[in-house]
TrEMBL record:
GO MF, any single term: ATP binding
NCBIfam families: ispE
Gene from which this protein is expressed: ispE
Family: Belongs to the GHMP kinase family. IspE subfamily.
Residues reported to bind ATP: 92-102
The protein's name in its UniProt record: 4-diphosphocytidyl-2-C-methyl-D-erythritol kinase
Species the sequence originates in: Marinomonas hwangdonensis
Amino acid sequence: MQLPSPAKLNLFLHITGRRKDGYHELQTVFQFIDLCDTLDFVLTHNNQITISPTIEQLPTEENLVYKAAKLLTPYKKVSSFGIDITLTKQLPMGGGIGGGSSNAATTLLALNVLWECHLSLEKLAELGVTLGADVPVFVMGFAAFAEGVGEKLQKVELKTPYFLLLKPNCHVSTGQIFNDKYLTRDTPPLRISHALNLGGHNDCLDVVRKHNPEVNDAYLWLKNHGDAKLTGTGACLFLAFDKRHDAEQVNLTVPKQWQSWVCRGCNTSPTHDALTKWVEQNKG
């Protein structure tokens, strides 16, 4: 089985409070984009989980793909089932676009089928949130208005513009951003209808710009072309366009020190589309 593993964008990110356990209460809208990693899964009968290629400075046991596979081992139909997983990376790491969470969710969805676990999406999402707050939206597979730490999801239908995605050449520390004393943590909660109609902002933007000069430079450059936004805690920035041609024209002028992509917004995860097709083709 081969499945795409897409990125997501936070179309806005409001921090509405902080819990006693240190986690932040959020409101955000998640939308997938058609920029994807690829995962290949080969079913084995040696009861082993192998991940390739190995990622430098990341022990296999700490890899979210491996952790996701381990989570499903108690639910295998046949105890001898194992899996060989090959991950082909396209999504930049540390960009705020959910690459690791997406990879974990794609693994849960694939092994639920290949290992014949027969778990519901809701159960997979419940397992997935132990790996990261963004995993459930990738498991559920629909664009969503999210609350809590990002795990309380309501399905939404959004416009599907073309996005210019920009990755400054730096890695943003999420922990540093969320622990910054100047981070706004009291944005008034919005009703979902207001959130979708009014749009919103990213409460992390000013703090991220302060700590990361390259993000600041990229933001100021992109802002010249429209309503530039930060996704998650960055480092990636994005700008929406109605027409692919317009996004591509701006992309041609992106300074060489930054990575950039033109991609399309999706209201259904490409993973789910591909998995549905695979199941249909392999019935019986």
